[in-house]
Amino acid sequence: MHSSILLAAGADIDIMVHGLFSYELFGQTFWITTTHVCFFIVMLILLVFSFAANRAMKHATEVPTGFQNVVELIVEMLDKMVRGVMGKKGERFVNYIGTIFIFILVSNISGLFGLRPPTADYGVTLPLALMTFCIIHFCQFKYQTPKQIWTDMCSPLPPWLPIWFPINLISEIAVPISLSLRLFANVLSGTIIMALIYALLSKFAYFWPGALHAYFDIFSGCIQTYVFCMLTMTYVSNAIGEED
Question: pTM here?
């Protein structure tokens, strides 16, 4: 009895991954999916918000009100977060951290509005992690000497006994993989669980899972956004090292 109900519900499970249309390019078939559409919608929302914020700040008043107050609150919050973790080093990375924070947060909570979160697709989270990976090693080569880099890669043993080099090399390569998989898996798991809830309860699900949406879309989405940005700031700060 229970197994038949689950099987019947399983046929109705929809995690919102659909191919909308395909096109041929260089002999290969490419698909435009719901992820691309949701990604485009999120980017359009952010562009509209950024143009509105720019206009509001051009006509800013000394005592902020309304939308100007919201914009200044967001900027101050992100600036405080970055400087609180990275100190003076964070001045150069406020724009980058703020950008990925807002993008990931809006993507994560887009499920509240019927969209499939773009961050539930590994093709979105991996490029974000790779950008962070490139910034980490750019800062490492810019602010550290080759001797310091070699010593760190061979720690905790002296550089003439580089036993730890292969292990540290693997850990460096694992940084973008762990960053991207953590965000992707947590957002995808929430998407799948909500799809199961809606499939199992059918139309009745629309009357009560607001608490679940509040957890998987808002609470978990905010936590994963903060974790991704916090790890990014920590890795970059460690790559820069102590500045004079």
Answer: 0.84
